[in-house]
Amino acid sequence: MAMAKWGQILIDSGHESDAKTTIWPLIKFDLEWVTENWDSTGCDLWEEVRSDDFFFNRMAFIYCLNAAADFADQIGESLGASYRSVADDVRAVITKHWNGNYLYESENRPDDGATIHAITTFSLDLYTPDSEEAAATIRYLVKAFCNEYPINQEDNDAGDPGILIGRYPNDSYAGGNPWQLLTAILAECFYAGATITRKKMETRGNYQLSSTENAQWMALLNLDAGATASDLAAAQVSAGDAVLTRLHNHVKADGGKIDEQIDKYTGKQASAENLTWSYANILHALHTRKGLSPDPPGPTTTTAKTTEGGPTNNPTDPTANPTDGPTDAPPQTCCSSVLFESSGAIGMSNPE
Fold it and tell me: Quick one: which of 244, 257, 341, 238 has its CA closest to 295?
């Protein structure tokens, strides 16, 4: 993916010869392995468990094969059709990762923030950030990570918007904490969803949401019957702002330094310092946010304070109402007050 994009930059800047003679051989060499081994056993994103069926890896294969195919076509190479054919083969089997409730990473590590990263970074026309599967996966994982990290519960009790997410429940690496890079990618997923929703409005107008086709998004962001695409886009932007606002609250005291993790008890940055991946994901989320309206929705919009499990008007839901009490040992039903309505901090600091 990176080489194909760099090759395109070279072409656009008048260096087509370098793109053909330097970049193309590297792409071809890498994809020779991918086309022959995409269904082989390998490592997960975190290099901890092995499987032949990681969602993140397969989404990456589909994206990269198509990007390389477009690049091959542009420079007159003949492998584009072959790359697209393999991408179609991968696409045919990745659909099993939708289990009816959320997109799982692998059978031996089903619940993983890597799925949100894959949706945000690699989606083309499958499991896009505005899809029902994306909303359902966010809804499921947000609840898991809220229960996992005491700092989330404390922030919720304080009325702070957003959520911090990490790699996977019961993570033991360096204490098993929220990760800045994954929290940022969650925010970007909301922003990317809003971008797609707005794009749809260019051809469909401000269409009314469907209680069946948009059920997961309406539940996640607590949008009422009769809500429109404009309401959804505003709520998606607001949700992204809420997530980045919470992240910002935990890193703002460090003078712009971004580390790998945030301690799940103290809320202070921890583990690897100045992690490049953290910086990259935060900057990319802000770049995506830049293309959207800087004005977050106000309290009079159809966006409401919502839970990670959906609307709060279900009397049979044991997490329907916030639980008051100590934050040092909260019950597992405490995470009912994740606010996906922005405080305005990120929106009013829209990057130039």
Answer: 238
What residue type is 288 in one-letter code?
T
Q: CA–CA separation, 103 vs 140, rounded Å?
A: 9
Q: How far, rounded to the nearest angstrom, does the alpha carbon of residue 231 sit from its chain's CA centroid?
A: 20
C-alpha dihedral sign at 124, 130, 133, 138? positive
Q: What is the pLDDT of residues 242-277, one digit of tens each?
A: 999 999 999 999 999 999 999 999 999 999 999 999
Alpha helices in 123-256 (DSSP H): 132-148, 150-157, 180-204, 215-220, 229-251
Cβ burial of 72 (10 Å; 0-12, 13-18, 19+) is buried
Higher pLDDT, 347 or 314: 347
How many angstroms separate the CA atoms of 126 and 119, rounded?
Answer: 9
More reliable by pLDDT, 206 or 297: 206
Arithmetic mean of pLDDT over the chain: 87
Length of the chain: 352
Listed in sequence order, the residues at least 6 apart from 2 whose beta carbon sits closer than 8 Å to its beta carbon are none
Cα–Cα distance measured from residue 307 to residue 296, given in angstroms and rounded to the nearest whole number: 19
Task: Give the integer Cα–Cα distance in Å for 129 and 195.
Answer: 9
Residue 352 CB-density burial (10 A; 0-12 exposed, 13-18 middle, 19+ buried): exposed
Euclidean distance between CA atoms 247 and 190, whole angstroms: 15
* Residue 290, H or E segment: helix 276-290
Read off the tokens for 342: 């922005």
| Closest to 121 in 3D by CA, of 179, 188, 181, 65 | 188
**pLDDT score at 302:** 37
Q: What are phi and psi of 218, to 5 degrees?
A: -65, -35
Contact between 296 and 243 under an 8 Å Cβ cutoff? The reply is no
Confidence of residue 293 (pLDDT cuts 50, 70, 90): low
